[in-house]
Amino acid sequence: MSSIIDVARRAAVSTATVSRVLSKPALVKAATRDRVLKVIEELKYEPNRAARTLRTSRASKILVTVPDISNPFFANIIRGAEEAARHAGYSVILGDTRYDPELESQYALMLLRREVDGLVFLGHRVPDILSDMISEQGSNAAVVNGCEYSPGLPVSSVHIDNAGAAAEMIDYLASLGHSSIGIITGPLASPISSDRLKGVRSAAKRHGIQASLQIGKGDYSVGSGFTEAQKLIRNHAVTAIFCFSDEMAIGASEAVAAAGLSCPQDISVAGFDDIRFARFLRPSLTTIAQPTVEIGLQAVHLLLEIMNDGQESLRNITLPHDLIVRKSTAARKA
Amino acid sequence: MSSIIDVARRAAVSTATVSRVLSKPALVKAATRDRVLKVIEELKYEPNRAARTLRTSRASKILVTVPDISNPFFANIIRGAEEAARHAGYSVILGDTRYDPELESQYALMLLRREVDGLVFLGHRVPDILSDMISEQGSNAAVVNGCEYSPGLPVSSVHIDNAGAAAEMIDYLASLGHSSIGIITGPLASPISSDRLKGVRSAAKRHGIQASLQIGKGDYSVGSGFTEAQKLIRNHAVTAIFCFSDEMAIGASEAVAAAGLSCPQDISVAGFDDIRFARFLRPSLTTIAQPTVEIGLQAVHLLLEIMNDGQESLRNITLPHDLIVRKSTAARKA
DNA sequence: AGCGCATATGTAAAGCATTACATCATGCTT
DNA sequence: AAGCATGATGTAATGCTTTACATATGCGCT
After folding, report:
1. pLDDT digits (tens, 9 = 90+) for B67-118
2. Alpha-carbon distance B66 to B148, whole Å?
3. Percent helix, strand, coil in chain B (nearest 5)?
4. Of B54, B61, B103, the CB nearest to A54
5. Pick among A61, A91, A119, A254 to test the B interface (most B CBs inside 10 A)
6. B317, B99 in Cβ contact below 8 A?
7. Which of B38, B42, B175, B221 has a Cα-to-Cα distance from B128 of 20 to 30 A?
8. Which burial class, exposed, middle or buried, applies to A269 when counting CB atoms under 10 A from its CB (0-12, 13-18, 19+)?
9. Closest Cβ opposite residue A75 in set B54, B69, B114
10. Half-sphere exposure in the Cβ direction for B101 (13 Å, CA)
């Protein structure tokens, strides 16, 4: 591996000139520049990133932590984040935290260690380890919350209007004649889950069906969707089930089938997220589409802004969602 | 941010001692060690990784490139890779290459720049940019091919017995009475795709049905599965379609339905990979399960071995696969 | 007492790129 | 022709850690 010194020697210039050729070519005379570039080519010189990072204290890396990479919803956000990062000359370090606070903190340490320049974290729960940093730096801390948000903390975020989206779904189900609706939420600790619930409640109230609303508490997983749906079907005569994730909607559909009923004839099922496979389920799933790739893109853009500006810039970006009506929902049986 | 010098000063020792407390505690007297540790605690000292990397030329990072992170098949491999890397004290840089050779090379550069210590790449196609490195270093190059392999190049790899798995699927379909079988392959350039085709052919020959084999050429995507299946259904009276990816099997199922036929009554459909959603399709998909997480784990283990041993160690690890029979395949109509 | 060895710690170089500041040359102005 | 602005390049410090080598201390042994 050749270093900048080798290049300088061979091109008969100082290391400063070599460095300038690479970073500020306009400052170097054309003839010199060409000579240096030729040597760089010959020696296949690549600047040592560690040395550059050490000198400039910029790692050109951002950390993206995700609770479950195998969930295509998160995978798409990562896709957007990777793209935005790459275009800005950053690379992405991936942290799969498996919903484990321990791992979340372990990864967040990389930010304190300045091993990365910024952090996009998906999911609720700001790692404790960052609380000092955030209270010191406020919204200048290079941290962005993707798809969730953290009420009370000065952390910028990118998400959809969860309450509005959930309300829309209730409007839609009510318009199909459903009045006995089961809801399967995400974890209560998740602000977006409680936002969705608020949206559900206010819409239900508007339609005068809040009394017959049945709430089951899930955790976004297929299994919890199945279990909670079974309870809703057995104990309450719901005619529609609205799950706060597509995964749970898959579980709920299985529960409908397991109960000897069919979807959507007997029970309508709706999800949230519009994951890649929602359209391939049978019946295809009615759901709320989130602009996942865009969430990832914007989260990184926001992060870069914070990192570069250095000025106070707490922002919560709301992106548009979309109610996607497919075949898993239908008018209530007469 | 405090540096090792701050710690040394405050603990009244040299920086060497501080460094030793962290890396070789046994060399330091207990009293001194405790004193230093206490200061480290107080100052929240974290060693600067860039400086360490510069000094030791170890980045403690590995690069994992993947053609499409939103495909759950790859996402699971990444999961395994991340886990193995984390346990070994490495972090994972994620490269989503979108099947683009340009991007593959761009990411591979990180290895030449020693920005990462090793590379696990998923998909066929070793980046050109690495060919010099590989021909120089042979199998000592810190490169491992996950789930594919590169015949002719000294690159270690981890994959299943693709020919054997494909043959098993043909055996199974033949046992159901199918003799007119359509195949939808992946790209021809992919060695595993051609291995699967070899397996298909030899099994078909064994069953005496090779003459009625119909081959369509896909690219692993849902869309290509749909298009190729349509051709197979229209132009040839196939009674079973075996796709070399679950995604294509989803497309093929759509094509069966679009032709007014039903699966599996009229046409059986089988896939490959056993992605997370294969079981949730209706009918649930018969497929070959690959141990995805394990592939990721082993790929990283192999990489670490190569990086640490430094000795000649070209290996191709074959992991077990599994034929998963679900509801998308059935006996041929009488 | 003197020697040697083990243990504990310090000194300082090295790893490589960036960049503020210094120097030098050139050409223009008056 | 002297003076100066401008442009081009060099000098050297800096960032922080690791580690080979040097030094110092203490102990046991003869």
Report:
1. 999 888 999 999 999 999 999 999 999 999 999 999 999 999 999 888 999 9
2. 12
3. 50, 15, 35
4. B54
5. A91
6. no
7. B221
8. buried
9. B69
10. 7
The residues pairing with A158 across neighbouring beta strands, listed in sequence order, are A146, A317
Q: Where residue A310 falls among pLDDT bands split at 50, 70, 90?
A: low
**Could you say which of B103, B222, B282 has the minimum Cβ distance to residue A282?**
B282
User: Over the stretch A243-267, which tens digit does the pLDDT of each residue have?
Assistant: 999 999 999 999 999 999 999 999 9
**Domains present along chain A, CATH in parentheses:** 4-47 (1.10.260.40), 58-160+292-320 (3.40.50.2300), 162-289 (3.40.50.2300)
End-to-end alpha carbon distance in chain A:
77
Please give the Cα distance from B59 to B116 (Å, whole number).
Answer: 6
> What pLDDT band is residue B140 in, cutting at 50, 70 and 90?
confident
* Strand D within 7 A of B59 CB: no
**Could you give the angle at which helices B30-43 and B4-11 cross, rounded to 10 degrees?**
130
- Please, what is the Cα angle at A189 between A185 and A192, to 5 degrees? 60
b vs e for B75-113, b when ≥16 Cβ sit within 10 Å of the residue's Cβ? Answer: bbbbbbbbbbbbeeebbbbbbbbebeeebbebbbebbee
pLDDT at A91 over 80: yes
What gap in Å lies between CA A9 and CA A182, rounded to an integer? 74
Q: What angle do CA B274, A254, A211 make, to 5 degrees?
A: 145
Contact A83 B96 (CB under 8 A): yes
Q: Is A178 exposed, middle or buried, given 0-12, 13-18 or 19+ CB atoms closer than 10 A?
A: buried
Once rounded to an integer, what is the mean pLDDT over residues A120-144? 86
Report the range of poorest mean pLDDT among B124-128, B196-200, B242-246.
B124-128
In which band, very low, low, confident or very high, does the pLDDT at A280 lie, cut at 50, 70 and 90? very high
Asked if B181 contacts B209 with a C-beta cutoff of 8 angstroms, the reply is: yes
CB A135 within 8 A of CB A79: no
In this structure, the strands spanning A181-185 and A214-217 are: parallel
Which of B48, B69, B79 to mutate to test binding with chain A, by most A CBs within 10 Å of its CB?
B69
Residue A58 (CA) to nucleotide D8 (C1'), in angstroms, measures 28
Residue B105 token pair? 């090379």
